[in-house]
Amino acid sequence: MGKKSKGPKKKHDAKPRKKKQAAEAAQSFLEDESEEEDFDTMKLDAAAAANKKKSGGFQAMGLSHAILKGILKRGYKQPTPIQRKAIPVVLEGRDVVAMARTGSGKTAAFLVPILERLGGRSPHTGPRALILSPTRELALQTHKFAKELGKFTDLRSTVILGGDSMEDQFEAIHENPDLLIATPGRFLHVVMEMNLRLNSVKYVVFDEADRLFEMGFQEQLTEVLHRLPEGRQTLLFSATLPRLLVDFARAGLSEPVLIRLDVEDKLSEQLKTVYVMCRNNDKTAILLHLLKHVIKPDELTFIFVATRHHAEYLRDILERAGVSCTYAYSSLDQAARRINVSKFQARQVPVMLVTDVAARGLDIPLLDNVINYSFPPRPKLFVHRVGRVARAGRTGTAYSLVAPDEAPYLLDLHLFLGRELSLSNTNSSPEESGLCGRVPQAVIDEELELLRCMQQQSVDLQNMERVCSNAMIQYLKSRPAPSSESVKRMKQYLREDLPAHPLFQVQSTGEDTRAKLLEGMKKFKPASTIFEIGNTGKSAAFAVMKNKRRKHDNLIERLSARGAQVAEEEKPAAKSSNVSSSAIMAGEEEIEQAFATVIDNNTKVPSRKGAKGSAASQSAATKSKKAKPASFKDEQFYIPHFASDFHSEKGLELEKTFEQQASQAVLDLTGDDDKYLRKQKSALKWDRKRKRFVREDSDPKNKKIRTESGAWIPASYKSDVYKQWRKKAQMDARDEGSGDDEEGEAGSGLGKQKASACDRLGKRHSGPARQKGPKKHFRRELKTKEEILKTRKRKARLNYHVKKKHMERAAKKRRK
Fold this sequence. Notes:
The chain is an alpha/beta fold and about 800 residues long. Among the domains are: about 55-260, P-loop containing nucleotide triphosphate hydrolases (Rossmann fold), CATH 3.40.50.300; about 270-310 and about 365-520, 3-Layer(aba) Sandwich (Rossmann fold); about 730-760, no CATH class. Helix 15 links the parallel strand 12 and strand 13. The protein is elongated, with a radius of gyration of 36 Å. It starts with a helix and ends with a helix. Its EC number is 3.6.4.13.
């Protein structure tokens, strides 16, 4: 019995104990509710901080969920250095001038903060953000990238490009986009046509700002800036920073922040450069050998040529040689260019022939190789050409075919980069970067024989080769001249015997003797002249040459000895000058005066390097003073005749202004067609009023300019295209909108309320008394809110009746 009564007692005592514990827990929870909430908040904050610290990426930048989701959907996990520095500063609302090399992620550095600050759709009229790009391709890529990043937002973006229909662009602007991406020429044309004030723009981005100035858009940019509000946020993103951009930043930006990365290294560390010295006639043969035996078939390769005729000629040759390729140049049709680029991006063809129009416009993220078939005449152009490869941590190779007339540009490039030109030797390895060498003649002869067979079998190739030679003559006329110092130094390099490049030494086994013999035959000069061969001492010509040699031999020997002495003295000086020539484009004092804040990769490291470099240079100078007598310069008081950053600034100098480019019909960096060269200033046109021929191009009274699409329009950009579109679309002041952006009749705006339905019906059906003559009624392209709502109600009513009938029919079938 005791055991039986023990069990129920335990159960009876357990229930009150549990209730008591629950009551005590509830009481303690009610008493310390605030303390618990504070503790939980601290816990969550600590976890968030730990997560941010752990991630160190876009999650730590305080971005919204929609933008962060778009970034992660795009595949980005960690921001690049320029994105890590620029995005927080842009989010603060500061004006920014960002400087980083091509392929470092500058596009996302300004798109992410702009999309974040825009938030969502705004009821206000007019675009709130404006992005100006130098080329059509770059604008399209920026628009595509913006749509991908803003995929989970309700933001709307549009593009305004030259060559597209202006009526579609008018309609796109009336649809009230949040983000507007445009090229400067067409955008200013649309602005002048619609008389837009752009008061709603809060953020302005100048993408590839140095290229915008190079292409002559300075006046368009200044005009656009005048129409923007003063409280805007301006962002300049560029790969270089010449002084003209510093002056522009002083004028158009308020207390800007300069963000500069990779200033000293103008080329990527992952980029391998190969320089091949050859003749112009051997370039095609060397190109074939590189594509067949050196470059792998699955690697994507860009080949830069001078003109579009070279692109077409080389395309035919490569196709006949079994190398599938495509091409793109400026005068190619837009649809054909888009198809060719998509084929190359999809790896359907591994090789693409391009002109300088693709140096900035086309974005191929997985590019492996670049071949400079025609060496660029400007160091800056070389940097942007090879900037297509070795991006985002990938490795790449840049092959440059250098002809004798292009060799001085190679020295200018190394002086601009602050590097020494290293020649290949027998101990050089194929993996070494920056070597300059030649190609064995046996390799060239093998490919030249194949080219001869192709040209003998095809008359088209012979004609195309002749066209290429004529186009090259026109191209050389527009090519800038190299520096005289580089021409003198390159003559000394060309006199020496240049060994074969390590890439071709495998094929050159046993060819050293033959190469030396051929070089000796090329450099052979007979000791006697035509006047001395076969003549006796009694002839007058022999006596004249004998007197000439007696006078000039000693002078020639002295000059050659002096030249050798100068060459030996210049070797250590060239090394020290190369170290000091890697300065930035604008001076430090000018940058500190122009920008309120300067953000660098690491501010302390360059100063230490600079201090070490200066100390090393001073010690080297003292050693050289002990070894050899110093020059006449006084190191303390001597003022040089050019600045220390002369070579870098000369390499980055911009093209002439827009007026000078229009008056002088020459081929600039992006020109690849000779039609502009054929247009001379003396081109005459019949004037009906004067009854005689006049020079239209050189006449200052002809106030017309050429747009990006190639059409000539008045200099004021004003025509009747917009008025005709309004008339065709039946757009009145109430319907067409943009009260904040337009003047005159369009001042009522899209944000204004529309007239009532009764008024509109009264105006539309006012009777025949108000109509004077027959009038054509066009259906409007844009619908009002009332019309859209009415259409939706009609569809809903129709769907309801249809469903009701279906239900009745189904019920009748069930009854049967």
